[in-house]
Structures are given as structure tokens and as C-alpha cells.
Write a structure and sequence with these properties.
Distance between the termini: 50 Å
Strand order of the largest sheet: 2-4-5-7-6
Number of domains: 2
Number of helices: 6
Helix content: 40-55%
Strand content: 15-25%
CATH topology of the largest domain: Heat Shock Protein 90
Length: 268
């Protein structure tokens, strides 16, 4: 420990003598040690990002290669080759999805403290922000039937999650449409015979065409998107699911394309 501090002090004195592009707000070795710690974190994140990009790029290369073979098999009417290419593309997509899921799990949790807050307030403030940007293309109707909406968690992350959900609705409706957000209370029986617990249920439905049957089971996975623009990589609903998971909430897609979210209420 003594050697490490001596080294840091020597580096500090060297930079102090010769100058640096990073200004020191306070003339002390303690500030410099904090800068070194921050730089170490940045180097670690850079290394993590490079490895992640490398792993994803490998899967994209596989997909691109077999897509070219797929076109060739189609032109040659080679069914066996065609099916083999489709299978390889599917495997690479699943692997890529697992990589990004692990990345989500490895990312540090939010530094915002967990607090008690009313979800209705978060939804209202998010709607105000979204309507200011997307009106009149997207009209948002609310139906807050739930008498309670107090939950516990990261309020900032929840605001970002609902922003993503409404952005998804805006993209789905096209030139003009409506999104409806409704809340209700749902009673859930305890399978062990304990008291019935109440869940805050949020349902979001828009007038867009809905999700294709082929992707309904995987819309909350990374890389899954209905958007034709390749820039939309399909991380929106996956990130929403990650936020909800940190709140011990669950999310699902109902038969009529309604997104249903269930939260544990505080002070039951």
C-alpha cells in the first residue's frame, strides 16, 4: 500500500511539473488519486466494450455470410442448403441475444437510490414530455383506475422505461394514432395460503398494427425489432424489461397486443 501511494504521489508530482490536459481543481495528491481511479474505471469499461463489440461482430459476420449463401441456395433451388443456412442464422441470432443479455446483467446497477414513489406521477410526467415532442402524431389517453400506485425502486430508470414504451408506441402508429395507458389493481392469491396481495397493473395499447406472430414470444429479447430501419437494433423493450426486473416487476404481451406490467405495491 505504501509503495502504491508513493508511485501515485510521484506521478502526481511529475504531471504537476510538466503539465497535463486534465485540469486539477484542487492542488493535492488526493484529487489526483481520484482521477487515477476514474481513469482505471474508464479503461475497464473500454475493455468490456471492445470485447462485447468483438463478440457481437462475430455473430453478425456469421449472419451476413449465411445470408449470402441463403440467396445462392434460393437461386439454385437447393432446399437442404437453404434450410441449413436458416438454421445457422437462427443459432447466430440466439447467441447474439444471449451475449447482450449477459451484458445487461453485468452492467453496474443504477447509482440512483431506491425510493418510494407514485407510478402515476412518473407516467404523467413522461406523457407530458412525450406529447411535447410527438404531438399531434401520437395522442395518449390515460385511465388510472388504480387507487394506489406507490412502488419502490429507481424513479429515474422507470421514467426512461416508460419513455421507451411510449416511443415504441409512437413508432408503431405511423402517421397518426392513439396510445392508451390504464392502471388497475389485481389481487393475487398466495399459493401457500397467506393473505392475498395486491398488484399494480399497467396496460399499454396503441392503434398500430401490433407485433408479428413470428416474434411475439421474443419481443422483450435484444435484437428483436419490427422496425425496417437497421439503426433500430431492438434494444428498447429489452432495456425496459431489465428496468422492470430490477423493480421485481414482470412484463408480458397479451393476445390483443397489450403490454401488461405488474408491480408490487408498497404499504399493503
Amino acid at each position: 500500500m505504501q509503495h502504491k501511494q508513493s508511485t501515485e504521489n510521484a506521478e502526481y508530482n511529475d504531471i504537476k511539473s510538466h503539465g497535463t490536459n486534465m485540469p486539477l481543481q484542487h492542488n493535492s495528491p488526493e484529487v489526483f488519486r481520484e482521477i487515477l481511479r476514474c481513469e482505471e474505471k474508464i479503461r475497464g469499461l473500454t475493455h468490456f466494450g471492445r470485447n462485447l463489440c468483438h463478440d457481437i461482430n462475430n455473430q453478425l459476420s456469421v449472419i451476413m455470410g449465411f445470408t449470402m449463401l441463403l440467396e445462392s441456395a434460393f437461386e439454385e433451388h437447393d432446399i437442404e442448403k437453404f434450410n441449413s443456412c436458416v438454421h445457422s442464422i437462427e443459432e447466430a441470432t440466439i447467441t447474439g441475444s444471449k451475449i447482450t443479455t449477459r451484458a445487461f446483467d453485468m452492467l453496474p446497477r443504477s447509482e440512483h437510490p431506491a425510493i418510494d414513489y407514485h407510478l402515476h406521477d412518473v407516467i404523467r410526467s413522461t406523457i407530458d414530455h412525450v406529447e411535447a415532442i410527438f404531438a399531434p402524431q401520437l395522442a395518449i389517453h390515460v385511465d388510472f383506475d388504480a387507487a394506489q400506485s406507490k412502488i419502490r425502486g429507481d424513479k429515474f430508470a422507470m421514467e426512461m422505461a416508460f419513455h421507451s414504451l411510449l416511443l415504441n408506441a409512437w413508432e408503431a402508429v405511423g402517421k397518426q394514432g392513439i396510445a392508451t395507458i390504464a392502471t388497475t389493481i389485481e389481487e393475487v392469491a398466495n399459493i401457500l395460503g397467506g393473505k392475498v396481495r395486491k398488484k399494480l397493473v399497467v396496460r399499454i395499447l396503441d392503434t398500430g398494427p401490433g407485433f408479428l406472430p413470428t416474434i411475439r414470444e421474443s419481443i422483450f429479447n435484444p435484437f428483436v425489432t419490427t422496425h425496417p430501419n437497421i439503426r433500430h437494433a431492438g434494444f428498447g423493450l429489452a432495456s425496459v424489461k431489465a428496468v422492470l426486473k430490477s423493480h421485481h416487476a414482470d412484463i408480458m404481451l397479451e393476445d390483443d397486443n397489450t403490454i401488461k406490467i405488474r408491480f408490487d405495491l408498497v404499504d399493503q
